[in-house]
Design goal:
It is built from ten helices and 14 strands. The chain is α/β, with parallel strands linked by helices. The mean pLDDT is 92.
Length: 309
């Protein structure tokens, strides 16, 4: 997959099959669109193209909205899209100036002149251009004029509920990993580097890798203990993870701590990807480190059962 960050650098393609959107999380609704884009491109010996935007438009248009958390960083989004076999990814820097681009200008300057779009495939709720004026109906009415076909992909439902990035965020914020993973079509994950900790875990036989907090707008699931998979150096390890303030030791700052089962070794400085499988319990304060240790033994057993399933 070729990643292009400037419209001016985009090559003229012979038969571009294009989709556009923020694609936060690349969930199963997005995946349905991507599969159709790739299918149509192969049918015509064309090229599959995804247009996405960074930063997330809401972060630019509503900077005071500090509550917005994202399912994927731009690096994660690139890798997620790459895994589906997309040929070209155009990342358009989203600015206030770009937000004032009319739908007509978007069509003529980007879809037609820059990319040579022959087929445009969009989700049922996708809008583009200034004030979100560009809809499926808007596009369909002008597609013949500009020489491309427009196809709309209907909503993806799970248990009669429409899948959306917002619903996945809400699930993660309450620790409902099962729902989030079902809507994502894979485990929710985050990637971070191991940094120096205070080594309290070692004193109770549960050494942990202390992960640096991810970028400010990356969503961290709610405080609690999780069964997870931890991957580094291409190796996947069973692990359990605590997210929280560590009230038993009077902690004041949010920590992300991962204990790898049946592993010994130095992890400092390594980059680890954590995949969330299930929340085991909420974080709570224990009367002593001994009581915490007993609970962690129980958590370890529960983790082994979850990851074997």
């Amino acid at each position: 997959m070729k990643v292009i960050r400037d419209v001016a650098d985009f090559p003229q393609l012979s038969h571009a099959v294009v989709t556009s959107g923020t694609f936060d999380g690349v969930h199963i609704g997005h995946q349905k669109i991507l599969r159709r884009v790739i299918e149509r491109a192969r049918q015509s010996n064309g090229q599959s193209v995804v247009i996405t935007y960074w930063p997330h438009p809401r972060l630019v248009l509503f900077p005071e909205d500090n509550d917005l958390k994202l399912l994927s960083t731009i690096e994660e989004r690139i890798e997620q899209l790459r895994s589906y076999g997309i040929d070209y990814l155009l990342i358009i820097p989203f600015t206030k100036e770009f937000s004032r681009t009319s739908s007509r200008t978007f069509i003529t300057d980007i879809l037609v002149r820059a990319i040579n779009t022959k087929v445009l495939i969009i989700g049922y709720d996708h809008r583009f251009g200034k004030n979100r004026e560009g809809s499926f109906e808007h596009l369909r009415a002008r597609s013949a004029q500009y020489g491309f076909e427009v196809e709309e992909i209907p909503r993806q439902d799970v248990d009669d509920v429409g899948v959306s990035s917002t619903k996945i965020r809400r699930a993660l914020e309450v620790g409902d990993i099962e729902t989030a993973n079902r809507y994502l079509g894979r485990h929710y994950s985050l990637t971070s580097k191991v940094e120096e900790g205070d080594k309290i875990g070692r004193t109770i036989s549960f050494p942990t890798a202390n992960l640096a907090l991810p970028p400010a707008h990356k969503l961290i699931p709610s405080n609690g203990v999780y069964a997870v998979w931890a991957t580094f150096n291409g190796e996947r390890h069973a692990a359990m993870m605590n997210i929280g303030l560590r009230p038993t030791v009077d902690g004041k700052q949010l920590r992300l701590e991962v204990h790898l089962l049946n592993f010994s070794g130095d992890l400092y400085g390594r980059t680890i990807t954590v995949e969330f499988v299930e929340q085991l319990r909420k974080e709570r304060k224990f009367d002593s480190l001994e009581a915490l240790q007993a609970q962690l033994l129980s958590d370890k057993h529960a983790t082994e059962l979850v990851l074997r399933a």
